[in-house]
Amino acid sequence: MYDVAIIGGGPAGATLARLIGEKYRVLLVDKRQLTNSPESSLSGKCCGGLLAPDAQRMLSKLGLGLPKSVLEEPQLFVVRAIDIQQRLEGYYQRHYINMNRQKFDRWLLSMVPSGVDVRLSCQLKSYTSENNYFSLTLTQENKTYLEKTRILVGADGASSRVRAQSFSKSLFPEKYFAIQEWVEADSNLPYFSSFFDPEITDYYCWTIPKGDHLIIGAA
């Protein structure tokens, strides 16, 4: 029986496990294989890898500073915004930190206490609520495991399976699907960029320089 089971080993889940891992019996589950080298592939979570000022302030409150290994070049402070339909554009100062999201997640996970049971390439399939605990059904490498926990935490992102099962009858906000690709850059852009064009999407598109690559995305 675990005291706390955390589904999702991203920034929220890994941080919670780090903060409580020495006081309680904790299970941390993530569907990704976060022990592989992030340089082996450019695929992964659809994330631009820009750390916003609010997130920077939270890390500082936790006494954490980003290691150099997590940072990505170039470090920029300008966003070029382009409204294609209105033929307008502007440049804005923004204090994002350009980083490698996969390395960032691995760094946070590396600080989780050794006493935490970390299971990677593992997924929550379902759970049931009993009298004073939750019964979890997990799958890992084509095997099924049953675990029990007193507290269940859903830190599994926008498509949270914990949330979907916990509030199955609730209406959720309209979803946006994001598409993002890494391409080799033929020039070095001195800014991040955002594009607005209702013929493409009612949201926006973006480009983010990452070393010798350029992220191109839309939602």
Written description of the protein model:
With 219 residues, the protein is α/β, with parallel strands linked by helices. It has two domains: 1-37 and 100-172, FAD/NAD(P)-binding domain, CATH 3.50.50; 50-96 and 174-219, no CATH class. 16% of the residues lie in helices and 37% in strands. The chain contains four helices and 14 strands. It has helices spanning 11-20, 53-61, 101-110, 161-166; strands at 2-7, 26-30, 50-51, 78-83, 88-93, 97-98, 117-120, 122-129, 134-140, 143-154, 179-184, 192-196, 205-210, 213-218. The strands form three sheets. Strands 7-2-1-10-9-8 form a six-stranded mixed sheet. Strands 5-4-12-13-14-11 form a six-stranded mixed sheet, with no helix packed on it. Strands 3-6 form a two-stranded antiparallel ribbon. Strand 1, helix 1 and strand 2 form a beta-alpha-beta unit.
Write a compact overview of the structure shown.
This protein has 219 residues and is an alpha/beta fold. The chain has helices at residues 11-20, 53-61, 101-110, 161-166, and strands at residues 2-7, 26-30, 50-51, 78-83, 88-93, 97-98, 117-120, 122-129, 134-140, 143-154, 179-184, 192-196, 205-210, 213-218.
